[in-house]
Amino acid sequence: MSTPTDHGGPDEPSATLALTPDGRPVYDRGDTVCVIGAGASGLTAVKNLKEHGFGVDCYERETGIGGAWNWRHDRSPVYASTHLISSRPFTQFPDFPMPDSWPDYPHHSQLLAYLERYVDHFDLRQHVWFGTEVVRIEPVAGDRWDVTTRSTGGYGPERTSRYSAVVVANGHNWSPKLPEYEGLAEFRGETMHASAYKDPAQLRGKRVLVVGAGNTGCDVAVEAAQQAATCWHSTRRGYWYAPKYVLGRPADQVNDLMLMLRVPRRVRQWLYHRTLRLTVGDLTRFGLPKPDHRVYETHPIANSQLVYYVGHGRITPVPDVRRFHPYAVELTDGREIDPDLVVFATGYLTRFEFLDPKLLGDDDGVGRPTLHLNAFPGAIRRSPWWACSSRTRGSSRSRTGRRCSSPGCCGCVSTAPSGRRRSPRRSPPEPGSATRVGSRRAVGTGSRSVTSTTCAPSSAPSTSWRRSSGEREECSGAEPRSRERKGAQVSGLRIVRGREWARPVPPARREVLSTLPDLEQGRPPLLFVPGFGHGAWAFAEHWLEHAASRGFPAHAMSLRGHGGSEPAPEASLRAYAHDVVQVVAELPRQAVLVGHGAGALVVAHALARYPARAGVLAAPVFGGWGMLGAALRRNPLGTLPALWGGRLRLNRRQLFSPELPDTVARAHLTRLGRAGRRAQWRLLFPGGLEPAVGNPPVLVLGSPDDRVVPTAALTRTARRYGVAPLLFPGMGHDLMLDARWREPIDAVLDWLVKEPAPTVVPV
Known about the structure:
It is a single chain. With 763 residues, the chain is an alpha/beta fold. It folds into 3 domains: 16-174 and 349-417, FAD/NAD(P)-binding domain, CATH 3.50.50; 184-343, FAD/NAD(P)-binding domain (3-Layer(bba) Sandwich); 435-456 and 492-754, Rossmann fold (3-Layer(aba) Sandwich), CATH 3.40.50. An 8-stranded mixed β-sheet has the order 25-36-35-34-33-31-32-30, with helices on both faces. A 5-stranded mixed β-sheet has the order 1-2-8-7-6, with no helix packed on it. A hairpin with a 3-residue loop joins strand 7 (144-151) and strand 8.
């Protein structure tokens, strides 16, 4: 069991409000939110509630995180060969990407490792109480909820705590839905639900009948084709079997590219049918039933091997089962087959053992709750409640367990009164004002912006928050009826789509230099991002070792095409931001991003994709025609070639102060490289910046004597974040290499020591 959280763990003494019917006290947890389940959805809820200033208690009945994806758990439906059916960009959390080195379709063990890294990176484990199961949840007066818990297995006394809101994220792929067939009880062969299937050895040498044509049923049928003596696959209707790759790319990325290009659904359906007919042919000639629906109208079945084994005679398609006999199974077409083993891949029931089904609109108790927006029980939609359920009546949604198109479905955050959120600890500085620093060691005083961003969960799984007809939202494998724009707002949720999914950035080898402190002091790691032409070496000269000497784990990276990273002459600004988020996600803890020059612009884009502890923009080059004009006036010969895709050559006067010895300055100039042409051109048209995820504090610093970034441009950048720029007179553009390099890094480190953690401002 984890230790109590900083907001008070469940075992911390709290006010006793009342007594339960059996005389036990009820402990008031104040404004704390209760999260049930530490799977993908529960962890997302914990992270985002914590990020938005709420206290969180998470109860997990197992001894580890991961939910259905942790094969060690008793209720996990994962089997040995489970892989995702959605590619990495559609599975990962948008603010915590999976490594580029992973395959397009990761194995379930990799997804569990990913969730483990997610928990440790954002320090969520302290909020999770393992080995604790929820016995019941009861609504009480004042829109509060009494949650009764005990040790898993029924050991120990029960404890009741009162919470202001509850998030139900217990998953639904654990209660098997078994069909009822005439004569099934008299069948002498072996029967099992797919939830009990773990290894192909269970099928070896047997005559196997697989009932069900979902993704799990198709997987089991394919493994039976490889291991069993005979395999029959029983389906009630025809389906479209989507290949995992189309035109050499993951199929979901190709489809999303067409969505991004706004290709009408009818056209996409025609293209899919035409492609399938040209590559596979008519599926009915293999004995498969003809689909009774168009593609994209139901949850997709992604399996590239089923048709292959059907064509090789290793899988025999058969219709639905009519009845069972002691030694045979009768089909609806009158045929009889004699399987040794029947595997029912017939899905699961959505069950909440600790809740009265009537609270969820499931009056008959059949495991089909009726949820407003697929998240809120209709009868109590105004209460502070958030239910994460991945399958509801009348909607097709991506599945959380087994082989799914998302590691979890994320619902809507119920907005508590603004008084329950943390407020900023100080007011913002006067816009346009600046703090001048002339001493050897300066303390940064820039404050974070108090402009509140949307309360959307930044870690909602990237598998499509889509707007459906009317006002309902659904996370669906089926195609939405209406199309959304990139960045569209859906009931307060910002949709991150477009090229991030349809055309992922290709991987590249990146150089990362690290210097760690001799003694771990619990301070956040720093990731330094150099500007165009510079590499990690620029920070390794002084700043890395100095930051480590003050207890900060320090890392510096080279963007692709720079330093020791892989050459990339056509790299874009999006690729650079992708590199930053990839590197920072590999760090053990939530990090501070420090960008210099054009690297500050890269960091600004990365802050919209990663919830950093803080952001530091040193001598930020955000581009624009005004900055180009200043560069042409001061260094026309070095600037003009960059307009035609050539190398941008900055001179000594632009980068360094006169205090730096000429020999040292020339040595630094010889190490400068070139940025990608597309990234350089992007500086001419910088466009708008998305808001930073998690409202991190931001520090902007530079020099009034910088011959690359005019003071007016520095002030405009600081005004974007509602802060005052921190100025270091007499220094050049390359603050980390100049003669007085200690002053800015000490100011940054002092600011980080004093700056509180990111908080949410009342809307």
